[in-house]
Each structure stands twice: as structure tokens, then as C-alpha cells.
Write a structure and sequence with these properties.
The chain is mainly beta. The chain has helices spanning 30-34, 71-76, 142-145; strands at 15-16, 25-26, 40-46, 54-61, 82-87, 94-99, 104-113, 126-128, 146-149, 153-159, 161-164, 169-172. It has one domain (15-172). This is DUF2141 domain-containing protein. Pfam families: DUF2141 (PF09912).
């Protein structure tokens, strides 16, 4: 298994949330958030277009060079990378959890794989970042994705965005 290394970078803001009120936490790292056994990030996802497909969180080193880099390359270079997938629940709130190796700064990316092909499809799939800024048509900026993880569990909200409009760009569904 690859050695895990935490990296640092510039800050971005994330929306802090109150403690979960009995909401189910999804993903293979759910126990870390439920037991408050961090370092981890609990992500409440809002703005989902529908209840199809699956959900994915990816945690990267918070550097320009490493953000959204292929996971095989990161692991081959001995850098940290973590991915959590979850089936889309039929109803209710959507909360995911992802563990970090240590407290620190990381880059977080959310995707809604609506077509089930496990590869991001710009025409159908959704995406989101901790800053909740409009994604536009270009690759997201690192500053939009950086989140600081404490020793415990960091709670944030990410609003899913989908391609929309006559001149296609990403934005929240239905707006």
C-alpha cells in the first residue's frame, strides 16, 4: 500500500453545519463520522438533480499539481489519495463521510455519477466543491476545493451542480 502524505496549500472556505440530526451517513468511511472519530469530513450534499446513479467523494493533496490528478499517478508518487463511493439513497438527506490521514488541508471533490459509467460525463453528471462557487466550464480551481480537516470531524455542505443553459455552464439544478 502506498505511503500517505498530507500536503498544504491556500485556503478556501467551507460551509460549517450543525451536528447531524439522525441523518444516515453514507460511504465506507461512515463509521468515522458517526463515531466522531476523525480526522474526517462529513459532507451534506444538497441540490441533487435526481436519485439516479451513485455518489463519490475524492480527497487529494491540496496542491495545484495534485488536485484532480489521476489516482494511480498520485499513489505511484507516494502521495495521499482517498475515494469513497456510495449508492444513491431512494429518499432522505444525503450525507457522505471521507477520512483524512491526518489533520490538515486537503482538496475535496464531489461527483454525482448519474449515468452509472464510473467516468465523469460533463453532459449528464453533477459535481461540487466545498466553496460552493459556480463551477463554470473550466477545470475547478484548487482554492474552490480546499478544506481544513481538524483532529475530529469537519462538517460541510456541498451543493451539486450540473451542466445547464443555452450556453452550457455548470450551476445548481433548477436555477
Amino acid at each position: 500500500m502506498a505511503r500517505l502524505i498530507a500536503a498544504t496549500a491556500t485556503a478556501a472556505t467551507a460551509v460549517l453545519l450543525p451536528a447531524s440530526a439522525g441523518a444516515a451517513v453514507l460511504g465506507s468511511d461512515a463509521a468515522a463520522c458517526i463515531k466522531r472519530n476523525g480526522p474526517a469530513i462529513e459532507v451534506a450534499v444538497t441540490g441533487l438533480k435526481d436519485r439516479t446513479g451513485s455518489l463519490k467523494l475524492e480527497l487529494y493533496p491540496a496542491t495545484e499539481e495534485d488536485f484532480l490528478k489521476d489516482d494511480r499517478d498520485l499513489i505511484a508518487e507516494g502521495k495521499f489519495f482517498r475515494r469513497v463511493r456510495a449508492a444513491m439513497p431512494a429518499r432522505g438527506s444525503v450525507t457522505l463521510c471521507i477520512k483524512a490521514p491526518d489533520p490538515g488541508r486537503y482538496a475535496l471533490f464531489f461527483t454525482h455519477d448519474r449515468d452509472g459509467k464510473n467516468k465523469f460525463n460533463v453532459w449528464t453528471d453533477g459535481a461540487g466543491l466545498p466553496s460552493n462557487e459556480k463551477l463554470g466550464r473550466a477545470k475547478p480551481q484548487l482554492a474552490q476545493a480546499v478544506v481544513t480537516v481538524p483532529r475530529g470531524v469537519r462538517r460541510i455542505a456541498i451543493r451539486a451542480q450540473y451542466l445547464r443553459g443555452i450556453i452550457p455552464s455548470f450551476g445548481p439544478a433548477g436555477k
